[in-house]
Amino acid sequence: MDSSRVNIGAIKSHRLMKEHVGGYENMTASVTDFKNFQRDITKHIKGKDVHMLIENFKRKQQMCSSFFFKYEVDDKQHLIRVFWADAIGRKTALLYREDIKSFKWLFEAFRNAMSDCDPTCLITDQDPAMKITIERVFDSSRTRHRLCMWYIMNKVPEKVCLIVSQNEDFMSEFCNCVWSKHTKPGEFNEL
Question: For residue 129, what is the enclosing H or E element?
Fold first, then answer.
């Protein structure tokens, strides 16, 4: 049983193992053994984690040619940006900073993964650096930038008077208007 894959600590791992083997009487290792093992693994990995991640991505790419990854390290060999996309189309990125330079790198990696095609739509939160970068990287005639509805709806109490946002009738009518697939932009402004 490899508890490190689900990111749980030594004590919970020990309890899970106890359940797996049928009780403490069947255990061959103590909680201290589990803690020591975790300490030793952490010590062994220290400073090699980026290398291990990149090697893992290289193996995935060898097994599946449509697996894509790109990464960048700083002058101290610290990972500052990484992007990967699997064959199904799931894409993930980790950025050390959320600034224009990082978003530019991210969106260009995204385009590379998509055979240099611009997305039809990008849904983001209201990050100013991201907005600027989207306008610089993607062709606005092909890519529509939209804000996430969850983000918008969470901003409603902040943008309208608190009394109005607590009015159940108003919020019900507002939600009906916002979430209706039949409401056209002009109609929304009239409502």
Answer: helix 128-137
Place of tokens 């409502």: 191
* Report field, pTM of the whole predicted structure over 0.85: no
Domain spans, the chain: 3-45, 49-147, 150-190
pLDDT tens per residue across span 141-172: 999 999 888 888 888 888 888 788 888 888 88
The SS3 call for residue 83 is strand
- Residues near 123 by Cβ (< 8 Å), separated by ≥ 6? 146, 147, 148
Rounded-to-integer distance, Cα 46 and Cα 29, Å: 24
Distance (Å, rounded) from C-alpha 70 to C-alpha 109?
A: 7
Cα torsion 97, 103, 109, 114 to 10°: value is: 140
